[in-house]
Amino acid sequence: MVFLSVLARQVLISLVVALVAQGFVIPHGIERRDSPGFVALDFSVDRSSILSSGVVGKIAKGGKEANSLHAVVGKRAGTVSVNIHNARFSYTSIVSVGSNKQKQTLVIDTGSSDLWVVDANAQCENHSYCKTSGTFNPKTSTTYQSLGLPFEIYYGDGSESFGIWGTDTIGIGAISLQKQRFADVNSTSEQSGTLGIGLVRGESGANYSNLPASLKEQGYIKTNAYSLYMNSPDALNGAIIFGGVDNAKYTGNLIPEKITRPDRLSINVTSINYNGTLYKLTEDAALDTGSPITYLSAPVVAEIAKQAGATWQGSKTEGQYVIPCDADTTGSVDFGFENAAKITVPLSEFVVGGLDCPFGFQPSPVSVSILGDNFLRHAYVVFNLDANTISLAPINYTDDSNVSAI
Q1: Which of the following is catalytic: 42, 109, 114, 157?
Q2: Which of 80, 162, 236, 283 is deepest in the core (most CB within 10 A)?
């Protein structure tokens, strides 16, 4: 995730977790390591507040160097699904940490790779606001072990977090990951912890098995992969399925695109057709649930903005494109990719409600292009980290479900 200006990320979440094998729900409390299932992470959507001043995703930069951008198995492969909630364009879920299952509301982020929680005695930049989504007290967990190694992560919006690496039991509903590595943060300018589910190479510091990798290693899923269903713009929920794909949630075929970066969930965008005008390009763009809107290179955005009637507001180095709030939103934008995947997004996704109506395309301030939530709401996406591919298909908004393991 990277923000030009920080969005309030007040989180109200509920979590529903089910283990599913071959499309059937397994009762809660049953662990299927001998025949792993898929973990479904559902989320709810709170659209009470939308941007009023431009937003970029949140790119994590473990240490000082840019590292990464900022939820099937066994003999008869299954999957793991977990519930997430969208609070003001932050997709969040509740997990537990420790032997006493301390509840944490964490931002689900495909743009970073580390799991970190807020310590009970943490210093928060915004007074105690970072503690409203749950805190962790390592002294009360009998299974916590400190690794004694410093953790630090920096984001493109200037926010940062510092703490200590440790291991403990991480709970996702009925599922428990043993000795999972995470960071106990004692100083942060963020408003809640983060569950990064990106590539291992995108982690802060030395590489380790993050949550998706551990789900596979500990026998809950067969493949280190997950599918993302953001649901319709007006929906109140969606889902991530670890280790599986919901075949009812897309139309046509899932087309695999090669991941272009070792540390980032990026693919090549080769064209954009904005309401009938075709732009040929080669953009290495990350798919980031932490970004409400889409960011491309400045020259491309300038051309699209000119056609759309958006104007630049601000100085030469800082600002954003804004568009009249009553702009015509009939028509669509087609995104084309290297292996011929195509996703169509309605123009209404690019007029962002708020005081100034920021344009849904903005130039990336960090030299990283991002396909944000306004794109992801119209694509069914399968991130296969083992195969190094991201597969895309047009989304099908439905309550039906037909889950199979990857």
Answers
A1: 109
A2: 80
Domain edges within the chain: 80-221, 245-405
Asked about 109 being catalytic, the answer comes back as: yes
Do the domains spanning 80-221 and 245-405 agree at the CATH topology level? Answer: yes
Q: Is 288 a catalytic residue?
A: yes
Q: Which of 42, 119, 246, 288 is catalytic?
A: 288
> Quick one: fold of 80-221?
Cathepsin D, subunit A; domain 1 (2.40.70)
375: closest CA among 390, 356, 395? 395
* Domain 245-405 in CATH 2.40.70.10: yes
Q: For the segment 208-245, what is each residue's pLDDT rounded down to a tens digit?
A: 999 999 999 999 999 999 999 988 988 877 889 999 99
Whole-structure pTM value: 0.84
